[in-house]
Amino acid sequence: MSTTTGKSLIELAPAYAAVVDEMMEAGGDLSDEDLAARLNAITGAFEGKVEACQFVYRRLTGDAAACDALVAELVTPYQQRAQRLRAGAERLKRYVYTCLKEANVVKVETPHGGARIQANGGVLPVLFDGDPKELPAMYQKVAISLDSEKVLAAHKAQEPLPEGVTVGERGQHLRWI
Question: Tens place of pLDDT for every residue, the chain, 177 residues?
């Protein structure tokens, strides 16, 4: 495919690859302005630049997906092992707690540490197994929030909205075709 300036996509590709390499060397932290300046410096027809950007976009998203798959393949077994190790440590801690409780011992000191049973800190737990609607009002918490579905329905029906409530415009995004 040849653009109106005579440069094919294959000829443009190295220039775009160089920009992507610069972006990756910067840790992906190339500002939007720097990225635009580098891409604007590449000569070629508008359609050719759009197509080249589309190919680079697809390459980057494909590489990211491959990295995600690799991370899942490599990290997941270690995450699972870490989860099993933490669970084992908690089971061991519960075992020692149970042994101390059964022995009616509050504290055991050893040359390398020890263990003791102590009260939990923080706020006292409040337990309730009924319907909160049946509680006296002073023990209820009522959350009030904007019902956006009703606002949109009123907007669609061209009804006036309360002060401070507005309906924004739909945004736009780029879709590769």
Answer: 444 344 555 566 778 878 888 888 877 777 888 888 888 888 777 888 888 888 888 888 898 899 999 998 888 899 999 999 999 999 999 999 999 999 999 999 999 999 999 999 899 899 999 999 899 999 999 899 999 999 999 999 999 999 999 999 999 988 888
Residue with tokens 């309730």: 128
What does pTM read for this prediction? 0.55
Query: Which residue ranges make up each domain of the chain?
Result: 9-99
Q: Residue 150 and residue 144: Cα distance in Å, rounded?
A: 14
Among the listed residues 102, 97, 135, the one whose alpha carbon sits nearest the alpha carbon of residue 116: 97
